[in-house]
Amino acid sequence: MAHHGGLVIGAFLVLSNVYGSLARIAFEKLTDFDYRGNTYYTVKNLSLYECQGWCREEPDCQAAAFSFVLNPLIPVQETLCQLQNETSSNNPSAAPQRSVNMYYMTKLQLRSENICLRPWAFERVPNKMIRGLDNALIYTSTKEACLAACLNEHRFTCRSVEYNYVTLQCQLSDTDRRTAGQFVQFVDAQGVDYFENLCLKGNQACKGNRNFQVPRIGVADDKVAQYASLHYYTDKELQVTSEAACRLACEIENEFMCRSFLYKGAPQGSQYNCQLFHLDHKTLPDGPSTYLNAERPLIDNGERIGTYFENTCEKATAASGAPSDNTLPVVFETTEDSNLNLTKSDINCDKTGTCYDVSVNCKDTKIAVQVRTNKPFNGRIYALGRSETCNVDVLNSDLFRLDLTMTGQDCNTQSVTGVYSNTVVLQHHSVVMTKADKIYKVKCTYDMSSKNITFGMMPIRDPEMISITSAPEAPPPRIRILDSRQREVETVRIGDKLTFRIEIPEDTPYGIFARSCVAMAKDSKSTFQIIDDEGCPVDPTIFPAFSPDGNALQSIYEAFRFTESYGVIFQCNVKYCLGPCEPAVCEWGRDSIESWGRRKRSVNNQTDEEEDMTLSQEILVLDFGDEKQSEFLKSELSSADFGRDKTVTIIEPCPTKTSVLALGVTCALLVLLYISTLFCYYMKKWLNPGKHIA
Questions:
Q1: 602 or 535, which is more confident
Q2: How far apart are CA 431 and CA 411, in angstroms?
């Protein structure tokens, strides 16, 4: 920033009351600019204020595009109002298109009690700024917070504000494009938007005296007046008795900021002879050249053109020796203080002698920022732009922590493709920020493929990067097969009820999902897919869908095997999610089931290409009567090499209920057969006594 005058005072203002109130609806307006958007409703011949009011009442409306064309035969302004439920105007990288006779109004949510009842609170000019002449600089995480700070400013009249979407700098000023007595340079600035406060009262529009006169801009007066009558939207028409009455009407107008008026001469009948406008030549993107390029109407109906007047700001006279706001702008210096003499080794120390050891723990729902100091610290730690909703007060402590939520607006943590970032302020004073305070950029990167969690921190005002890396290893998952008693088994029988589990430890920020699971015979000649590529069960009657159990996935199924092999090998592709994974909705017949075989979608609904982790587990499935072969089969299977497959061997010592029942039935039948045989033998002997020889 260039500095006006010889004295520069550093100030860094923290406006804590910006976030103390609920968000309210307000609008910003662009003149002769248009943004791309999705129009869901169009209506003709509404007034500008009816169009804006309709958008205000519609919950789905995000922006309103109001345009009009001039009918050269009448001439009459024919209007068109388009309501949009999607708009690119909130995207800093989106470029607006020039559009003649267009007013584009974007709905905002501002946390301020000072929002006026006017149709729009700010006039926005994209990619522009006033060089120098700033009264204060603050850092805000959003444009809306910057605009709210301007409305809430009470130490000086905030007439304009500039917001830098890259550096998050919000510059407040009591100067605008109409300020007199200073050299105002309105220059191009990519990535910076200029806003003028239109909630000011008429007597606050100028730093000095406000007056109305015919503009001296190098264009003929009648040409300017004719352009205003045809191409300015008429905010209000009335009948007055004199030019002074029309001027007074513009000065006291409270429903909008009246910048100019057109007086058509003495009243004639019931015709209106005074038109009030919210526009002036400063508002037009091309300035005075707009009038030079305008064409006259095709038909001259002979009506009076009138005289066009614009408001001008006159320099205020200051008392002798008194400081004037016009000569002493207050600008915050963003360069490093040369008196600090900071080096790379003490970059985390401030001018008060306090040194900070900052560490970050990246978790699944929050970012824990822990600070240790070399001496007791008094003040507060908070998220930049969320000082009221995301803060911790510190009282005489050398160890403290701030938890940044990763979702919601309380801490306003930003996320892009797995990277979560925020800005943390370590502030000594409870209200005011000074150069003794530290600002850190905190970032957590959740990398699913390498399963490393890293973060980096960078003090905004220090030239050197502070690089701190934390890489907690994501634990590899494992497969366990449990029986009905929740014991891990390797040898089972057909029909046994088993629990198939894929597990990771509970103390990890990750969740898991599984897909592309297959069951294979030991010789790999036969395979059967049990979970498809989408995470859905192929046949739920054989292998049901996965369900979550803490950080684990499990499916309860009955043991099966292949005809030609006792050994069954299960193999699954497993990936990580940040936090719990979302289920896949699977269709089976007429039913819909959920299966935790799909990862959670990212914020922008994009899926990254990641490397699958393949797990496998073997189990021995016996038929009834195969118990004698189990030891031989186990020894045979254990001698085979299955690469990296991990086998857990726990032999079941007890018979199953089915085998006990079968044995009981067999014994009962044998006893019954024995009794029947004895009964038949004695009955035959009794009916046929032995013969005696005479």
A1: 535
A2: 18
Q: Is 53 helix (H, G, I), strand (E, B) or coil?
A: helix
Please state the pTM of the whole predicted model.
Answer: 0.47
At residue 404's C-alpha, the angle toward residues 473 and 470, to 5°, is: 25
| Closest among 148, 67, 89 to 114, alpha carbons compared | 148
- Is 600 within 8 Å of 413 (Cβ atoms)? no
Could you list the beta-strand ranges (E) of 225-355: 236-238, 260-263, 274-277, 307-314
DSSP letters for 405-449: ESSSSSS--EEETTEEEEEEEEESSSS---TTSEEEEEEEEE-TT
Q: Within a 10 A sphere around the Cβ of 524, how many other Cβ atoms?
A: 9
* 129 three-state secondary structure: strand
Query: Which of helix, strand or coil describes residue 224?
Result: helix
Q: What is the 3-state secondary structure (H, E, C) of 492-529?
A: EECCCEEEEEEECCCCCCEEEEEEEEEEEECCCCCEEE
| pLDDT per residue as tens digits for the range 613-643 | 677 777 777 765 555 455 545 444 444 443 3
Residue 587 class from Cβ within 10 Å (0-12 exposed, 13-18 middle, 19+ buried)? exposed
Cβ atoms of residues 132 and 185 within 8 Å = yes
Regarding beta strands 491-493 and 613-622, do their DSSP bridges make them parallel or antiparallel, or are they unpaired? Answer: parallel
Give residue 524's pLDDT band: very low, low, confident or very high (50, 70, 90): low
Region 494-510 average pLDDT:
83
pLDDT at 377 over 70: yes
Identity of the amino acid at 18: V
Closest residue by Cα to residue 139 from 110, 172, 168, 171: 168
Q: Retrieve residue 635's tokens.
A: 């020894």
Identify the pLDDT of residue 388.
82
Instruction: Look at residue 627 in the predicted model and tell me its pLDDT.
Output: 53
Integer Cα distance of 562 and 546 in angstroms? 22
Asked whether 460 and 139 are in contact (CB, 8 A), the reply is yes
Q: Chain centroid to CA 298: how far?
A: 52
B/e letters for 294-331, b = 16+ CB within 10 Å, e = fewer, are beeeeeeeeeebbbbbbbbbeeeeeeeeeeebbeebbb
Quickly state the pLDDT bin for 551 (edges 50, 70, 90): confident
Q: How many CB atoms lie within 10 A of CB 88?
A: 15
